Amino acid sequence: MVICGHDPVTRALIRKLQAHGIPFVIATARYEEALRLEEEDGMRVVFGDPSEAEVLQKLRVETARCVIANLGDTENTNIILTVRALCRTQIVTLVDEPENAQFLRLAGANQVIPLKKILGRYLATRATTQGALAHVLDSFGKLLIAELPVHGTPFVGLSLAEARIRERTGLAVVGVWDRGSFAIPDRDTVLSDGTVMVVVGTREHLEALERLTGENAGEDLVLILGHGRIGCSAAAFLDSRPVPFILIDRAANPDCTEHIAIIGDATSRTILKGAAIDQAKGLIVTTNDDGANIFFTLACRHLNPHIRIVARANREANVDELYAAGADFVVSYASVGANILMNILENKESVFLSEGMQVFRYAVPASLDGKTIASARIRSLTGSTVIALERAGQEEPTILPDPDAVLSQDMILILIGSPEQEARCRETLH
Ligand code: AMP
Ligand code: ZN
């Protein structure tokens, strides 16, 4: 793996590569950085500009499995053109400005990831209390995965058995979040006002839930602190629902012609007072300054105990502090980026939920053919839970299959679990 550009995203990716034993080399034109990475961190580093053919040849780029371009859009374009002039090695690039994606593809990138746009969407889906379909994070074919707050539904205070969500809508509740901790629910799990459910089902199931909860988008109001690329993408997502929002930033966004933001510093009192925190249902905290994000989270939680706070952590080290300050959800820029890159590198599909939880697919291996889900002991062996079964030729997946369902090799398991549990699944079930 050849990595160009060293930032929190590539640092998180490198930890994953090391854990998987995948060899990599970093190319950097910054001398001090090259020295530090090599001497302090013991990494393989090539000093030189990765958009120069000579440097790429020294790296033996033609033998690499993949090149990851993670610099600015123009630098990435240069790297991609130079790599393409030399060889057919796979190139994955991140892009800041989604409109530049076409140029990066034209230059020869195989995959272009608009990370800031994706992150804005992640934050936005978690901040609104609007109906069920606003919370869809991703899909596996017909199966939609959504994270939905209990707040505003008729289920507050009921146990899962009492809420009868499955019977009433067809949706399965496969996980519950409470302030950053995730659990697989059972019949007795109580859905409190602050709980967020992870549900799976089809579009029809989610529509049934929307009818049941009958929420009105007009009542929702979301504050967005930070109108950079990520905040702007969150705003665009809410606009498409439509959910009303107010943007705040200390400077105007020169790249945005769509939105108007209130100008002010997050750490000033006047901004806090003027921001309608008492009326807002949701708050997205997404500046590039974790200190400001922590301060604003703490102040807003104090002013409005019921507001739903979704915060961005620019550095993974600040995830816990943001939770301690009162955030309901923290989304780490570095780990979302590293997860997406790793998924592409490993050629697999998975849906990233919040920190440390994902939904992933796994084809039923020969060793489980003919066994039932219960006798395969997937949960006790791997810690992950089967939430659905896909079968070749069957249009609709079976949601929460019966423990007595018999597995066969033409089936694909859809599971929920942490990255470690997913790794255990691949190690133990084959
Ligand atoms: P981006 O990383 O592209 O999402 O941009 C981050 C945004 O956060 C920029 O538009 C900054 O102006 C904004 N920002 C950074 N610090 C503060 C602060 N203390 N108060 C308000 N906005 C801020
Ligand atoms: Zn904007």
> pLDDT average, as an integer?
89
Unreliable segments (pLDDT under 50, ≥5 consecutive)?
none
Per DSSP E runs of 2 or more residues, the count of β-strands stands at 22
Range of strand content: 15-25%
Which class of the largest domain in CATH terms?
Answer: Alpha Beta
Estimated helix fraction: 25-40%
Strand count, sense and barrel status of the largest sheet are:
6 strands, parallel
Count of separate DSSP helical elements: 17
- According to CATH, the homologous superfamily of the largest domain is NAD(P)-binding Rossmann-like Domain
End-to-end distance = 27 Å
How many individual domains?
4
Strand order of the largest sheet: 3-2-1-4-5-6
Structural class, please? alpha/beta
The bound ligands are: adenosine monophosphate, zinc ion
Shape: globular
The CATH topology label of the largest domain is Rossmann fold
How would you portray this structure in words?
With 430 residues, this protein is of the alpha/beta class. It folds into 4 domains: 2-113, Rossmann fold, CATH 3.40.50.720; 131-213, 2-Layer Sandwich (Alpha-Beta Plaits), CATH 3.30.70; 217-336, NAD(P)-binding Rossmann-like Domain (Rossmann fold, 3-Layer(aba) Sandwich); 356-428, 2-Layer Sandwich (Alpha-Beta Plaits), CATH 3.30.70. Helices cover 35% and strands 23% of the residues. The strands form 4 sheets. Strands 3-2-1-4-5-6 form a 6-stranded parallel β-sheet, sandwiched between helices. The chain has a 6-stranded parallel β-sheet with strand order 14-13-12-15-16-17, sandwiched between helices. The protein has a 5-stranded antiparallel β-sheet with strand order 7-8-11-9-10. Strand 1 (2-4), helix 1 (8-20) and strand 2 form a beta-alpha-beta unit. Helix 1 crosses helix 14 and helix 6 crosses helix 10. It is globular, with a radius of gyration of 23 Å. The two termini are 27 Å apart.
